[in-house]
Design goal:
single chain, 130 residues, Rossmann fold, alpha/beta, 5 strands, 18% strand
């Protein structure tokens, strides 16, 4: 099964990414302390949150360079555009602002965009009762 791997200390952000990935049929795993899964990252998508601890984000991004997964670095690009530029220089496939990551992830992995469906109070994929 294809996975979305998430490197972020923010549990709310992780849960939002997880909901988007699960709706597209992808598994999700949180990466702790920058440790890659034992089976590698071949075919996986990796999301690195660089909104808090930039040195850790850079170190993790650098460790992935030879693996070549689809890499997205999430940053406050409207405040610090140089972060996105540096991420691309270090091997990220894309640098996406935090507010756009769920839509971009859904596009990339083939899931429904979070903006396409009204809020129902139910998990993605569960139809509202009428």
């Amino acid at each position: 099964m294809r996975r979305v791997l998430v490197h972020s200390p923010d549990l709310l952000f992780y849960s939002q990414v997880k909901g988007t990935a699960l709706a597209a049929g992808w598994a999700v795993a949180q990466i702790h302390l920058g440790r890659l899964p034992d089976d590698g990252v071949d075919g996986d998508a990796v999301i690195i949150d660089a909104t808090r601890d930039l040195p850790k984000a850079w170190a993790f991004l650098d460790s992935l360079r030879s693996h070549r997964p689809w890499l997205v670095l999430v940053a406050h690009q409207h405040l610090h555009p140089e972060v996105g530029e540096e991420a691309l220089h270090r091997g990220a496939t894309e640098a996406v602002r935090r507010g756009a990551i769920l839509s971009r992830l859904a596009q990339r992995i083939g899931g429904p965009s979070p903006d396409d469906a009204p809020f129902t109070g139910k998990p993605p994929g569960e139809a509202p009762k009428r």
